[in-house]
Amino acid sequence: MRLDKFLKVSRLIKRRTVAKDVSDQGRVLLNGREAKPSSVIKIGDVLDIQFGQRTLTVRVERLSESTRKEDIEGLYTVLKEEARKKEEDNPFL
């Protein structure tokens, strides 16, 4: 399954076009490497997604072509969620 589609189906990102843009900007890592929107996702892969001041690390547990809101549980497991500090963004503060 494509990365941009997984991000949308899993509801980590609401729209596929936004998932594509985020990937194109280099804000998604797949198993520690920068991922393109067309990167193939497999069960067991680890994704690091940067949302503004927050980074979310998840492991892919299950793939599904489409899901209802009730069925998204179990698609991924959150491994780590961390907020970046302002000092990391600008060392001159």
From TrEMBL:
Residues 1-68 form the RNA-binding S4 domain. Keywords: Protein biosynthesis, RNA-binding, rRNA-binding, tRNA-binding. It holds the Pfam family S4. The keyword Ion transport does not apply. HAMAP family: RqcP. Belongs to the RqcP family. Associates with stalled 50S ribosomal subunits. Binds to RqcH, 23S rRNA and the P-site tRNA. Does not require RqcH for association with 50S subunits. Key component of the ribosome quality control system (RQC), a ribosome-associated complex that mediates the extraction of incompletely synthesized nascent chains from stalled ribosomes and their subsequent degradation. RqcH recruits Ala-charged tRNA, and with RqcP directs the elongation of stalled nascent chains on 50S ribosomal subunits, leading to non-templated C-terminal alanine extensions (Ala tail). The Ala tail promotes nascent chain degradation. RqcP is associated with the translocation-like movement of the peptidyl-tRNA from the A-site into the P-site. This is RQC P-site tRNA stabilizing factor. It comes from Cohnella kolymensis. The gene is rqcP.
